[in-house]
Amino acid sequence: MLKLSYLIQTIINFKFISMKKLLISTAILILAACTNKSSNIVGRWKTKSQKGNILTAVFKADYTYEGYFNKEMFTKGTYSFKEGVITFENDKMTSCSGIKGNYKLTFLTDTAMRFDVINDNCKERNEGTNGVVYVSSKNNF
After folding, report:
1. What backbone torsions phi and psi does residue 113 show, to the nearest 5 degrees?
2. 3-class SS of residue 137
3. How many Cα neighbours within 13 Å face the side chain of 132?
4. pTM summary value
5. Which helix (DSSP H) or strand (DSSP E) does residue 127 occupy?
6. What is the Cα–Cα distance from 106 to 133, expressed in whole angstroms?
7. Distance between CA 52 and CA 55 in Å, rounded?
8. Are the CB atoms for 90 and 97 separated by under 8 Å?
9. pLDDT of residue 139
């Protein structure tokens, strides 16, 4: 009788430990997925204007970006991304040189993000960015 109760207790402990490990692993995976989603801005993102023009934003891992209008580069600069806020600063040779723009960046899905202006005195950047949803270039329109 003692051996049977020991065996039952061992099985219960094994299931508890396994369930505990499973829960911890699941929690880690969920946190990693959320972290990845909110910081994975690096890549090529596109949107289509009401007039059918394609705007493309390319964010690089070295914190530089390039902006394209119908495949022609029209701006480039640097960006920073912290706590859901992205800050743009255009290079000297492009429009709005030296003017910083701050936007709240919301990831709607893993492949779609929206910019909402916090403050930006650059009219051109604001018009092409504020309230606009960009999708990963992996998604075609």
Report:
1. -140, 150
2. coil
3. 18
4. 0.68
5. helix 123-129
6. 9
7. 10
8. yes
9. 54
Question: Any idea where the domains of the chain sit in the sequence?
Answer: 1-39, 42-136
- Reading the block at residue 15, the tokens are 């299931």
Residue type, 119: N
For residues 28 and 32, what is the distance between their CA atoms, to the nearest angstrom? 6
What's the token pair of residue 7? 């065996």
| Residue 131: C-alpha distances to residues 2, 51, 67, 109 (Å) | 70, 17, 17, 16
CATH class of 42-136: mainly beta
pLDDT tens-digit map of 41-92:
999 999 998 899 999 999 999 999 999 999 999 889 999 999 999 999 998 8
Residue 14: other Cβ atoms inside 10 A: 10
First to last CA, the chain: 70
